[in-house]
Structure formats: C-alpha cells, structure tokens
Design brief:
This protein is mostly helical. It is built from 19 helices and no strands. α9 runs parallel beside α19. The protein is globular and about 65 Å long.
Length: 478
C-alpha cells in the first residue's frame, strides 16, 4: 500500500479511531492486524515471509533469555540470524549469485546448468530482516530483554509506518513505547499531520517531478553531457526528497499513534565531508552497520590498516544491501574511497591563527560543495542501469562536459525553474533547521494568520502540482 494513495488515507481514517477506542491491551494486536493488511495489500503471497521472520526472532529471543549456557545462547542466535539472512539472500541475491557463478565459469571455459531463479523481490525485506537481526543481537548481548508478549513483538516487527522502508528501528526504542498506554493528543496529532504534509510535498511536488528529468537523461543513449549532468543533480535531490519524504510520513503516522520513530535524515547535503554525510544520511542504516558490523569487526582499534579494512567491508556490504547488482557494490566502494580520503585530509594540520569569519564561511561552503559533488559522482552508479552504463555516463560528462542541450523534451525551462524553486524552499527549511531547530515548533509560535496560509499553500501545491499517476518510493526496491 502506497503512502500517497487514497486507499492509505482511508486506511488511516479507520485505523486511528479504532486504535484509540480499543483498550490498551488490545492495541498491539490491532497494530499487527492493520500492519499485515497494509503489507499484503495487493501482495498477499508474501505474508508468510514477514510472519516467519517474526516467529523465528521471537522464539530466538525467548530461547536466549531462558538458556544460560553460552553455546545454547549462541545456537539460538545463529539459528535466528541464519533464517533471516537466508531468506534475504535467497530472495534478493539468488539471481546475482547464480549469474556471477555462471559468468566466472564461462570465463574459465566451463559450462554451468544451474538455473537462475526469477523471483519477485518482496517489498521491505531488507528492512524488516535487519530489524529482526538488531533484536536478536541486542537480546544476545543483554542490551535488551527478550519480549514475552507475542502481540507486542509482532507489532514491533510489522509496525506499518516503518515496515516497508524504515527507519530500521531498534527494539529499545519502539517496544517500550508499545507497552505504554497512549491517549489521543491534539498537539501530537497536529505535529504528526504537519510532518506527513511536508513528506507529501517533498514526494509529490519535488521528487516525482525530478524523476522526469532523471528518466529522460539516464534512459536515452542520445542524452547530451549537459543533460546527464542535470539528470545526476536531479537524481541527488530526487532520491533525498523521495526517501526522506517516506520517513517524514512514517514518523508522522507513528506520532499520531503516540509512538516516536527515530530521525533518519539530518540535512545531509549540508555535510562538509563524506564521514559527516553518513552521519546525516539514512541514519538508521549507518548506525546499524556501525553497531552490528563495524564495531564487532574491531572498528578503528586494530591499527590503521585494520581500520581501513573494516571500513571497506562495511561500505561493500552497505552497497550490496541497496541492491543485488555489482554497481551498488561499486557505489559503496566509492564512498569507502571518499571516506579514506576525508580521513587523510583531516590529518592535515590547520593554521593555528583564527580565520576571519567570512573566510571560514567560504571554506565551509567550499567543503559542502566538494562533498556534494563527490556524493553525486557516486549517485551515477546508484542510478545507472549497469556498471558499464555508469562508466559511459561519467566518460561523456568528463570528456564533453559542455556538449549538447541542457534540457530534455519533458523537462524544459519552466519545469527546471519550478523544481529549482521547490529545492530552494527545501534548502531554506533545512538551513532554518540547521541553525534554529524545528520548523514545526517555530510555526506553532506563529500567529494563525501566518500558520494556516502556509499550510493551505502546501496543500494546494500537492493537489495541483503532483504529476498524474502514482509512483512508488525508490527504496521500495531495497
């Protein structure tokens, strides 16, 4: 079920009143039932996948809580991890593994009769399997007690706002909130609706318009280098607006129900370095890899070479997490190289004398600009059809950077000015948040004659400027 569909709005209109009308003990079961309906709407065949991941993680947690012997707890852990990772690998990477195996054998003049499975990737599998792994690891390390109530645990695993595309929530944040009794609160509802409204604006007004320029630039072999540059910048903003919009809508829905989900984006394009970018972009995933892969590998404790090896592994796995294609692995390795370069650059001693304020501001602006360009170079591999396609695009941009028309047939000057204005508005909001905090809190302090016209402008923009037809969120494919 898409957040931007009429069906979802009708679903909320039924789900929320019933949620608050039910007694507290029944709400977890209602969340579970509603979440399964949300997940299986139009895709009933994969209900068992979410159910299996839930039961395996739940029983694994109970076993680790009941058993004291180390080998027994490790057995429960690795059985739970094995089932979740096995399902993820089979559905998401089975075709890639077989294809790579056959290509390798062919290069050595061998033949393979292994069949390439053609599977439909279940929506959200990368997210809810990682959430199950986080629970199993936290229970094993005794950072979080095993949840005894199956209805509460099932509600945590299937919670519909963040089920399909995150944030990848930790049990320590959501499960205790599910045990608390929440009463309907006007301020929380208003705050949640405002966050959802901003998410709808970013998705329907900005991201879906930018998708037109990206499709035309990357989908044609005759695109000029200038169109490819425009398409790359457009994709950088499209994927940010698309993904952060999903998070805003998810957090807004959860807030109405009285549950706070973690912030997943924090003005990432204001980052002054690649390490800072990853502290602002897809925060739930980057912190997941930090806590459950990077630190267990040794982090930065084993010397410089071990540190770089650990970073390389994390970014490689992170790249493959995003898609079953080697272009995503190259995307991750590029970020690893940029990360290494940023660490080396940080070792250069800075002048001890204080810089003038204008010079420091200019230096920070230059670092933000360079970081954004590096991120955009990596986005080419993320968006291109294949690794070869990405290399062709970069080659045309580098060798003929000013060649050809700038606009495409469906993305002309008027569309460019419109989306540029929307992005400028978005960046103004981000700059406000960067310097003064929450825009919502500021709006609450504004008089009614300022606040409500702003809401009406956003609502009218959504209904009048949204492109025809529904477009899925980009991260649905991951």
């Amino acid at each position: 079920m898409l957040f931007t569909s009429t069906v979802f709005l009708l679903f909320l209109l039924v789900f929320v009143p019933v949620y608050f009308a039910l007694p507290h003990r029944a709400r977890a079961l209602w969340i579970t039932a509603g979440s399964y309906y949300f997940y299986t709407y139009g895709h009933l065949e994969y209900w068992w996948l979410l159910f299996t991941c839930t039961i395996v993680a739940y029983l694994g947690g109970l076993a680790m809580a009941r058993w004291d012997a180390v080998w027994q707890r490790r057995l429960a852990l690795w059985l739970g991890v094995g089932v979740n990772v096995g399902l993820l690998v089979y559905f998401k990477y089975g075709e890639l593994i077989v294809r790579t195996w056959k290509t390798t054998l062919k290069a050595w003049h061998f033949k393979s009769k292994v069949h390439i499975p053609h599977l439909i990737l279940p929506i959200g599998i990368s997210f809810f399997t990682f959430q199950a792994l986080a629970y199993l690891f936290d229970v094993y390390r005794r950072r979080f007690p095993a949840e005894r109530r199956l209805d509460v645990f099932a509600a945590y695993k299937a919670f519909f706002p963040q089920l399909v595309a995150g944030p990848i929530e930790r049990p320590g944040n959501v499960i205790p909130q599910l045990h608390q009794e929440h009463r309907w609160d006007f301020d929380r509802t208003a705050s949640g609706l405002r966050l959802m409204l901003w998410g709808f604006f970013k998705k329907l007004v900005i991201a879906d318009h930018l998708a037109v320029a990206v499709r035309e630039a990357y989908g044609s072999n005759s695109s000029s280098s200038l169109q490819l540059i425009l398409g790359t910048y457009a994709f950088a903003w499209q994927i940010f607006c698309d993904f952060s919009a999903y998070t805003d809508i998810a957090r807004g829905c959860a807030r109405i129900l009285g549950i706070d989900l973690m912030e997943n984006f924090r003005q990432p394009y204001f980052a002054k370095s690649i390490p800072e970018f990853w502290s602002r972009w897809h925060i739930s995933l980057s912190t997941w890899f930090r806590d459950y892969l990077y630190i267990p590998l040794g982090g930065n404790r084993g010397g410089w070479w071990s540190w770089q090896r650990n970073l390389l592994i994390v970014f490689l796995v992170s790249g493959l997490w995003h898609g079953a294609d080697w272009k995503f692995a190259l995307w991750g390795l590029l970020h690893a190289a940029f990360f290494l370069g940023a660490n080396l650059f940080a070792k250069i001693p800075s002048p001890r004398t204080a810089r003038p304020r204008w010079l420091q501001a200019g230096w920070n602006g230059l670092k933000i600009f360079v970081t954004f360009q590096l991120v955009c170079v990596a986005w080419v591999f993320f968006r291109a059809k294949s690794t070869d396609h990405a290399l062709q695009i970069l080659g045309r941009i580098v060798h003929h950077p000013l060649q050809g028309p700038f606009f495409t047939r469906s993305f002309g000057l008027s569309e460019f000015l419109f989306t540029a204005g929307a992005i400028m508005l978005l960046e103004a909001v981000h700059l406000f948040r960067e310097r003064r905090g929450s825009v919502g809190a500021w709006l609450d302090r504004c008089p009614v004659w300022v606040r409500w016209p702003a809401y009406y402008v956003v609502i009218i923009a959504i209904f009048t400027l949204a492109p025809a037809g529904q477009q899925e969120f980009i991260y649905f494919q991951f």
